[in-house]
Amino acid sequence: MSTTALDNHTQFQSIVGQIRTLAYKYIEDKDFVSAQLAFQKLLELDPKDINARFIYAQLIDDGSHKKRAEARDMMLAILDEHPEIFDDPSEGNLHLIRSAAVRCSHVGPFTRSMELFRKLARASNQAADYFSLSEILTQGNEFEEAVAALEKAIKLNPAYDNPINRETLELARSNAKKGKVKEAKGRAKVGRYPETKDFLGDLQTLITSHIAVNLNAAPKFLDKSTRFFTMGSCFARNLSKSLTDSGYASHHMEISEYINTTFANRVFVDWLRDADIDPEIRERIVELLPPGSSKENTLDIIKQADVFILTLGVAAAFFDRETGAFVLPRPTALNSRALAEKYKFRTASVQENVDNVLYLIDFVRSISPGIKVIVTVSPVPLLTSFEYESVVQADCLSKSTMRLVAHEVVNNSNLQDIWYWPSFEVFRWGGSNASSFFAADDGAAWHVSEDKVSATVRAFVQTFSPA
Prior knowledge:
- Keywords: TPR repeat.
- TPR repeats lie at residues 16-49, 127-160.
- This protein is of the alpha/beta class.
- It contains 20 helices and 7 strands.
- The strands form 2 sheets. Strands 2-1-3-6-7 form a 5-stranded parallel sheet, sandwiched between helices. The protein has a two-stranded antiparallel ribbon with strand order 4-5.
- Helix 1 (3-28) packs antiparallel against helix 2, helix 6 packs antiparallel against helix 7 and helix 7 runs antiparallel to helix 8.
């Protein structure tokens, strides 16, 4: 190395040393704003300084999720680059592992937090670390290990032997026993919200492992001979098409987008059973039937079906302002506002919709007594509201209502051979955490992706089919 190079290197090291000294002085003076800037500059000049990286990570953590995650990533990077840290239980190394574990427990991933707390507790043998381990293990459903960790904390430090922890131990032991029973039945012990990697991973796995996990123990009744009859919103049509594309026999009762309320479904049933209905509604139903459809062949399709999939659409509908009766007008873009003045557009109650759905299922089973019923809620949003200025809020109210309807019908109506399939949650919750659930095919924010529908159907078939 030349003299000039040596001089430059010496000068550089001198500058780095001065900044390092200044940075630590700011820490001593509790001037954390200046310390953050100084450590940031220090890392620009010497990015391999482990201590500076760790201190800077702590300084940038302002309590927000974004900054906490940024600090977590910096700490995890140090541990990944220097695995020997786990073999040297110095106070500084333990502090680093502890800090990373705590941040993982706050913003995820919980699995990494459990891994770090396990290593930390063994290395430090401190009661506080075993107590923290018991807490994160409980969140991860590891009840037996959580109990052991809490017992270890109490053994190491009698201060942890208090009424709260004794009660916690009793509850944890009880949960561990219950967990074994549930696990034997193939059911999850405690539900936990999926992590980002789950949402961004394989959709079919996300559905079966995190969204429809309660159906893993459901009866397996599907095979290629199973015949489906679907009814409801346009999403039911998408499901039917995807089932057909997958080689299953499926018939969708295609009427119109206007028949996507339970009130419309109910009057359609009354039309099928020749009940006394409003002449205008009767005429309107006949107008909306697809070419070649009739009362007779519709009844025949229901009789032959093995599985009935009912997709609940929206909770809002038009009603007569004087009598309160449901009406089925002929809306167009031009006259829709006039219709809103003539009729009352409102979000129907949960109970009103429950009554309609039970009426519909009762009719279907009167024709096909052994038919199995799947209830879903369409993720396709309400496009127009004459009740609220914000259609987003109106859609939230509408879908929340229909989701409660599905829950009441499936869980609280004493019906047999009926299940709820969470297509709504797949798209609305999966879609809120990952892209391309809506608008992927045509840019329309209210159109579901065909690819995601297909994955949803594959998960549905997997859930209800023999292994």
